[in-house]
Amino acid sequence: MINILIGVGGTGAKVVEATMVLLAAGLGPKNLHVGLVDQDNANGNVARTRAFISDYREFRRSWAGSAPDNMIDWKGSGRGEEGLPFCRTEVTELFGDTSTWCPGGDQTTLRNTIGLNLTDKQKDLFDLLFMPGEEEQDLTLGEGYRGRAHVGAAALISKLTDPANPLTANVTELMAGGGSRTQVNIFVVGSAFGGTGAAGFPTIARELNRIRTSRNFTNKGNVAIGGALMLPYFGFAPPDANEKDLVVTTDELLPKTQLALEHYGNLFESEQAFDRFYLVGWDRFFQLGYHQAGNAEQVNPALLPELFAAAGALNFLSGGAELLQPVPAEERVRICARETKHVRWSDFPLPNVQARLGQLLRFATYWRFVVGDLVAQRRPWIGKGNWTHRLSGKTTREDALPGLTALETLLDRILRFGAVIEETALDDWDAGPWRLGAFHDPSHKRQPTDPVRLVRSHPEGPALFSETVRNDDGSEIRRDAAAVFNDLETDEKLEAGGHRGYGRVVAAAFNATRLS
């Protein structure tokens, strides 16, 4: 099976970021091709997700056997023994050596894209459809489509019609299934209220549907397309006076979304572009407290709805042959909702979220505040030392340093993601599902784009670890730090598998930090 995830625009990129966290937890398929599509190539949200993907891939590369003395076994023996769930999904960048495609280049305009060399009649139509000047025709698109979905759709369609464009070329090749009858699952995510996402989400989905239904397509009947549309869920400060006419404002979000949903209603009646369609919104806007039109300064913090959308994406991508079966149109749309005011593990539309994501957060905190110090301790001249020395065998920490550094970098991203989600959730959070506040750096001055920073070490790390994850009723996980440490000292099954060297240490620590 081939799985593809495409995040369109800044919001789509943030959902992909949340998906990477769930993949690290061991949720999702065994393989995934990931791509980001954004006209604003320097967008901070896109850059952060691109870096997350890179760090995830670097971690797997470091432990995949290139240094055979230190290896993590992700495949298992094939005799009922599974590999390590942590980061088990093999992630491939959709566009070769990068995960991002910028359709029009950095400084293009709509006029330069489709408005040149027109006949008189075509020019009259161009002037009728798009406002002259910097309003639309000469608007620099290097920072995205500025909430003008119709401008973005026109520019994007012009690029998609070129069969050599990397999105169509690469996805078409994957959709063919390697020449065999292979199921291909494609999931597209974007917003209904921005510019790039609102323009690209339906445009890309319709193009993919056109390809899979074309007469010459060889893998017909084996391609499933799903999508998650993000309804408005955050607001921002009013823009500066000189930018007010060039960007979408908070009070425009709902009217734009209403028009978008009417468009999707018509789309569902005329085309069956989506086999499953997820709608994700929130009944209270998260207020970001700042405004950036785009570029590197647009670095919005991670927010809860993105994690729900990511769970929906993996819910779809983990599906099997049932995704290829026709269903009534009204059953293709799935709306994500929660039953109570406060978020609970059971609200997520994906099985085993508490067990897997909870374990990931416990592992990340335990490694950062407990195991890291043990690994750094000098081995004694006599005796086996601590449990990390015993498991790593003859290999040295210096030999494993590139892999250990890649692990720490990835865990830092995961912990910060979890801490920001908790910090920005406010009244939606209450007692759970996790609590990372004790690890916040009290000296950090909260900023809208940087709400949380974590301490590098904590003297009460083991005790605080025991309070990291909570059950839906607010109770703590009974398997505390003492039980974890005892198992790491005595249970040889924790490192079972084909792990080698410090890979055994990573596997044992992850398995020991399970919830039960």
List the helices and strands and how they pair.
Blueprint: E1 2-8, H1 9-24, E2 31-37, H2 44-63, E3 90-93, E4 100-101, H3 110-114, H4 120-129, H5 149-160, H6 166-175, E5 184-191, H7 196-213, E6 223-230, E7 234-235, H8 253-270, E8 276-280, E9 286-287, H9 304-317, E10 333-335, H10 353-376, H11 387-392, H12 397-425, H13 461-465, H14 481-490, H15 502-512
Parallel strand pairs: 1-2, 1-5, 2-3, 2-4, 5-6, 6-8, 7-9, 8-10
Helix pairs in contact: 1-2, 1-7, 1-9, 2-12, 5-7, 6-7, 10-12, 10-15
TL;DR?
The protein is α/β, with parallel strands linked by helices and 516 residues long. It is 40% helix and 9% strand. It has helices at 9-24, 44-63, 110-114, 120-129, 149-160, 166-175, 196-213, 253-270, 304-317, 353-376, 387-392, 397-425, 461-465, 481-490, 502-512; strands at 2-8, 31-37, 90-93, 100-101, 184-191, 223-230, 234-235, 276-280, 286-287, 333-335.
